[in-house]
Amino acid sequence: TKVQTFTMKLSPDENRALDKANRILTTNLGNNPIPIKNIKKEVVNWTIPAGKSKTLNITGKRAITSLKVRIPKNSNYNDLLRQLTLSINWDNEKSPSVWSPLGDFFGTAPGINEYKSLVMGMTDSSSLRPEASKGVRCQVSGRTEDRGKESEVRGQDNRGISKNKNPDKISNIQHEISNDQVKSNNPSIHHSNNPFLFYSYWYMPFENNAKITIKNESDKHQKISLIVEHTPLKSSFDNLGYFHAKWHRDLKTDKKQPLDWKIMETSGRGRFVGTMLHIWNPKGQWWGEGDEKFYVDGEKFPSTLGTGSEDYFGYAWCSAEIFSSAYHSQTTNSHNRGHISNNRWHIGDNIPFQKSFDAYIEKYFINSRPTLYAGIAYWYLSKNGVDKLKEIPVKDRVGDYTGLKIFKEKNALEAEKLPVVNISKGKTQTQNMANFGNAWSEDNQLWWTEAGIDDFIELEIDSPENSEKNLTAQFTTAPNYAKIQIYFNGKKVGNEIDGFSQRVAASGKINIGKVKIKKGKNILKIKITGANSKAKKSYMVGLDYVKFEK
Predict the structure, then answer these.
(1) Cα separation of 483 and 532, whole Å?
(2) 107 phi-psi bin (left φ>0, alpha ψ -120 to 50, beta other)
(3) Three-class SS string for 140-175?
């Protein structure tokens, strides 16, 4: 094969081709990327009674190029989108090749997490441009063509809807909570009155007929719109595969490989094209060191052995940032605590197999912690292939996660919310501590960095009255934290506090000493006095909360 020599200077035709690819993979996300002529579009508006299902039948030698579902407003999407299921049977097969809770099928969970990708997405239906008639083709022998995506920062409200949110921006308003635990469901609100539209642009060929079914296992009737585009299939089906997508929570894995959480298993000839992983991690801390392992055609050692879950899903450094792009997304995450959802599409890097394919990802936290995984695998499979994943009853699809509880120290003043009125050197910021455990009040601390010996910060505390009380506080200790001295309204209080420890930890409540509080503004001063001989001399300081007690 003659390979064209690369040059830095691109021709006009090459620049136009590059611009087109950029548009497809960025600004065009949400629209089907490949034009296909002779499309037939079918739209059905169903009211599905509780416990019942509705089916759309398509006959002929054809291929689905676009499948969309429109969902009206609801009070609890997290449960509803697990109670509704999508199944697709190709060519009179007895068991469906596609079966999933409706929401999970579209690449994210739980509830609605708005994002756009090349092959899948969830969006406010007003945000999509008029659809073009297009599709994405995948051949069992041959090559798979492409897709992509884009999104914004999100967080979920208690209805299971995610919308724009920056979790690091925290109000300076002080407040008290009467109990020691508060429930958190990432309180952002979606204000749109538009219905939500979920889309899939996977290419789904069949020889004779397709049966698309939505089942309602909620306790109320549900109104659903299904929009399907399909086109005649002109090529032979011999080199094509049926599209498969299956969801599960936990498959039994080999006892010799207890860390390996099974994504899927199948036999036959086909191509693996992607997965979505939903993690429920209520206690926080970093969950994603597990490597992906893909075994092709019965191999004893995986031909794909990754370097960590975060790397596989396209990010690094335990990042909780919400993002989406053409081939991978993190559609919901709040500091790696609570719900996390990642997806990864293997388009240009789809994995072909001739006999079998088994996919795993290592899971380091056990279910009883609880840290729970649920996932969906996407692949193409030949006619005689065996799909080993079964349907999951509704009782095992909902209720596997409970309300997230975040520790809150009663009557404490959160340090990250106190105004910093003076700083001699360095910078302060709010740092989320959920990756280090749940011992920090409201999961955050005030973090002071880039300072040195004799530097100080001053925090302002407002009081409605004059009083004399005991000053207590919780700090963070770590290998690179400083020794500090506390002053209150200009007077030294208590002994020097050593911030050193071998690992990141909360100090627990420290009794600093009695202070005289005046009505109005008071100043709490923290001065760096040095560092432990064992500490790395970064002179960092972390303050979780302060509290006045009688």
Answers:
(1) 7
(2) left
(3) CCCCCCCCCCECCCEEECCCCEEEECCCCCCCCCCC
How many other CB atoms are found less than 10 A from the CB of residue 533?
A: 7
Q: Which residue has the higher pLDDT, 301 or 75?
A: 301
DSSP state of 24: H
Whole-angstrom distance between the N-terminal and C-terminal Cα of the chain? Answer: 84
The residue type of 338 is G
**CA geometry: angle 222, 342, 408, nearest 5 deg:** 85
**Residues 294/304, Cβ–Cβ less than 8 Å:** yes
Partner residues linked to 59 by β-bridges: 209
E-state strands within 108-221: 112-113, 115-116, 120-124, 154-156, 161-164, 181-184, 196-200, 204-206, 209-216
| Per-residue model confidence as pLDDT tens digits over 509-518 | 999 999 999 9
Q: Give the number of other Cβ atoms within 10 Å of residue 495's Cβ.
A: 11
| Closest among 509, 440, 498 to 470, alpha carbons compared | 509
Q: How far does Cα 171 stand from its chain's mean position?
A: 24
CA–CA dist 264, 270 (Å, integer): 13
Q: Collect all residues with Cβ–Cβ distance below 8 Å to 37 and sequence separation of at least 6.
A: 133, 231
Contact 229, 66 (CB under 8 A): yes
Q: What are phi and psi of 185, to 5 degrees?
A: -125, 35
Tell me what pLDDT residue 142 has.
Answer: 30
Contacts of 267 (CB under 8 A, 6+ apart): 355, 356, 357, 385, 386, 388
Encoding tokens for residue 455?
A: 């530097």
pLDDT of residue 89: 98
Give one word for 397, left, alpha or beta, with left for phi > 0 and alpha for psi -120 to 50: alpha
Given pLDDT bands bounded at 50, 70 and 90, which one contains residue 124? confident
ω into residue 33 within 30 of 0, thus cis?
A: no
Alpha helices in 268-389 (DSSP H): 309-312
Element (H, E) at 74: none
Residue whose token pair is 């990756």 = 435
Task: Residue count of the chain, please give it.
Answer: 550
At 223, which helix (H) or strand (E)? strand 222-232
HSE-CB of 96 using CA atoms within 13 angstroms:
20
pLDDT in tens, 369-387: 889 999 999 999 999 999 9
Helices (H) and strands (E) in the chain, counts: 4, 40
Averaged pLDDT, 30-47: 92
Q: Hey, what's the torsion of the CAs at 174, 176, 182, 187, to 10 degrees? A: -40
Which segments of 285-337 are extended strands (E)? 292-296, 304-305, 323-324, 328-332
Cα gap 241→206, rounded to integer Å = 8
Nearest to 373 by CA among 277, 508, 460, 439: 277
| Rounded Cα gap, residues 168 and 327, in angstroms | 26
CA-based angle 361:364:365, to the nearest 5? 120
Contacts of 350 (CB under 8 A, 6+ apart): 138, 144, 271, 272, 273
The predicted model scores a pTM of 0.77
Distance CA 133, CA 478 (A): 57
Neighbours of 210 (CB within 10 A): 26
